[in-house]
Amino acid sequence: MSSASLPSIVDRSNESIAANKEKAELIRAACETRDIRSLIELANSADGLLADSLRRTAWPILLGCPTEQTESESWRSLPPHREEEQVAKDVNRAFVHYPKESDRQLDRRKEELSDVIVEVLRRHPALCYFQGYHDIVQVLYLVLGAQAAPAAATRLSLLRIRDFMLPTLDAAISHLELLPSLLRAVDPQLYSHLPRIQPHYALGATLTLFSHVVEEYGDITRLFDFFLANDTVVPVYAFAAILLSRREELLELDEDEGDAVFFVVLGKLPKPFDVEVHVKSTLELYQKAPPESLRSWSWWKISSSSVLKATRTPYDVAKMSIADGETLFQRQSRDLRIQQACRSSLLITRRLRLQVWRHRRPGAIGLAIAVGIFALWLGKGRGSTGMEFYKTILGVFV
């Protein structure tokens, strides 16, 4: 390198420092006025919210945390949550990649992380813990600290990742089912090349907001800037954008490879992981093909109480209360029970039709379908009563 090129490098470095200082002032100003629109624009621009010192104020605003926390009963006196044993096991495996601290320091962090998670679960016992939740809360804890993290984790849980904390993972799977529809819309060739396997290969990333699969602390905090400032479906779009960035690699895979090979390959993140490139491509993909434009049943079948619809944007999240989130949780749980009852009804009807055909008893099929419809209606208001009634009737025919 010639000495003549050194001044230009220094100049660019000074310009970058000056630009970051100016951006930091803009972030502080947006935080002071709780200007969500400006925070979104800043989080979506290069390098996001820049530093943890700024994120400590900005993230709670994007999550709609109140400026003053009300005094409440100590969580330690509340009944234990049913998943606390699993929480302890998972927290014991936390802090693998970051921070680089002594064992004693990490043990202290594990205690504090456990306290944050258990406080959220004890105060909101309906929430169902899932493995990987500790990865998400770990990021919140490291940025916000042990005192501020519980409030942020509570709002995140009830208003942004509520679908993942229901009694089953059905709602989480419905997020993943948008992936094939999205790929088909924007890259039919790649979509046709990939096998028709369930997109569960993306579960580890989308379920944990990428915190389980991204190893660099600076990268995951940058991604959290981006995710918290955008629609709740954006993690799915981020995974799709990553697949599209690997297009040539994926097209080179032999279509005769087994599903297991595709599953492993599709689930990997590229290395090195250029977070700014992926943030930019995700924004472009979302603007090009928002979910309602996909013309896919995978979008329209999603419950209106899902985070993908009811608390879709940061503006929706910010204006909702914790009580609103709990109400949506109960509604979505009900919707899932109805969907499960429908699936069970269809399976039993198919079984009954097969049995009737074998025994050649005309007229029984129509009766079975009528009974199924009545059972479904009965089950809506009385839990499993309708399905139990249907199974009893089924026993008469078989």
UniProtKB/TrEMBL annotation:
Superkingdom of the organism of origin: Eukaryota
Listed SUPFAM superfamilies: Ypt/Rab-GAP domain of gyp1p
Keywords: GTPase activation, Membrane, Transmembrane, Transmembrane helix
Pfam families: RabGAP-TBC
GO biological process annotation, one example: endoplasmic reticulum to Golgi vesicle-mediated transport
TM region(s), chain numbering: 362-379
A single GO cellular-component term on record: endoplasmic reticulum membrane
Keyword match Isomerase: no
Residue ranges occupied by any Rab-GAP TBC domain in the UniProt entry: 49-231
Record-given protein name: Rab-GAP TBC domain-containing protein
Organism of provenance: Aaosphaeria arxii CBS 175.79
Species lineage: Eukaryota, Fungi, Dikarya, Ascomycota, Pezizomycotina
